[in-house]
Write a structure and sequence with these properties.
- The structure is a single chain.
- With 250 residues, the chain is of the alpha+beta class.
- The chain has one domain (4-239).
- Helix content is 22%, strand content 44%.
- It is built from 4 helices and 11 strands.
- It has helices at residues 4-20, 38-50, 100-118, 126-132; strands at 57-67, 75-84, 88-97, 133-143, 146-155, 163-170, 176-183, 191-203, 206-218, 222-235, 238-239.
- Strands 1, 2, 3, 4, 5, 6, 7, 8, 9, 10 and 11 form an 11-stranded antiparallel beta sheet that branches.
- The longest helix has 19 residues, at 100-118.
- The termini are far apart.
- The relative contact order is 0.21.
Length: 250
């Protein structure tokens, strides 16, 4: 396992990146996308606003941190997150195995999420995304059976937590289903290169980030991976599943 400084920076990177691109505001309407496509960006923003959580929910998240070539040595943390609309989010660590530093990393990620939710920064505005990215339309693609627009994300500046890569936007809902790329600027000297994959989907009728994988090339210690996934979800007393990875709790 990498040292405490490098481990903490991997976790902080993941938490901040998920907030920065939580539901990236992108413009798509079958036409080439550019920073001048303001009406399309506004349409995307409206689609996101309409899919913000309107009801309280509880989810259990599983985090794993491990050397990329050795999943068996993973530290694993389960955290329960409660959301009360419009902006209240709380969490509690349910279980920790492996490195205690891994729990500190997860707490750092969740602390940032709680703060961002309270300040209304959990879903970026269209104006913010237009300011930070140039977006290029590549064409159409199918992602796990869903027709999507495939876009290229090009950060306008080398800022921390911005991703250079691709985004798959659902053609029907205009919501981002997946973002895949590299961090243009790492938050620490320890991290030479970081690749991130963020996946979104409907869980019990609520559009959420369902999983994240961050792979970091850590100086001296080699490649490490941090993953996050939903393993349980409840809304208003009803258990809802989002794929095979989610299990109900009675």
């Amino acid at each position: 396992m990498c040292g405490p400084t490098s481990l903490a920076n991997i976790g902080l990177f993941l938490g901040l990146t998920c907030l920065a691109l939580g539901q990236a505001t992108l413009a798509v309407d079958g036409d080439p996308v550019s920073k001048s496509a303001a009406p399309l960006v506004d349409k995307m923003g409206r689609a996101q606003a309409e899919n913000r959580p309107q009801a309280s929910y509880r989810e259990v998240l599983k985090y794993r941190i491990f050397p990329s070539n050795n999943l068996n040595s993973a530290s694993e943390i389960l955290a329960e997150v409660d959301f009360q609309p419009p902006r209240t989010k709380r969490y509690a660590i349910q279980k920790t195995s492996g490195s205690r530093r891994a729990e500190q990393v997860v707490r750092s990620i969740l602390d940032h999420e709680v703060e961002a939710s309270a300040q209304g920064r959990d879903v970026p505005s269209a104006a913010v995304m237009k300011d930070k990215y140039d977006v290029t339309y590549l064409g159409e693609d199918v992602l796990e059976g869903h027709p999507c627009h495939l876009l290229v994300l090009s950060p306008k500046r080398r800022e921390k937590n911005l991703i250079s890569g691709e985004a798959w936007v659902d053609k029907d809902t205009l919501l981002v289903r997946q973002i895949n790329g590299e961090l243009v600027k790492t938050p620490s000297w320890w991290l030479k290169k970081v690749h991130v994959k963020i996946v979104f989907g409907f869980v019990g009728g609520t559009w959420l980030q369902t999983s994240t994988e961050a792979m970091a090339d850590v100086r001296i210690f080699g490649n490490h991976t941090l993953t996050e996934e939903i393993v349980d979800f409840r809304r208003t007393g009803v258990v809802a599943k989002a794929g095979a990875a989610i299990h109900s709790q009675q």
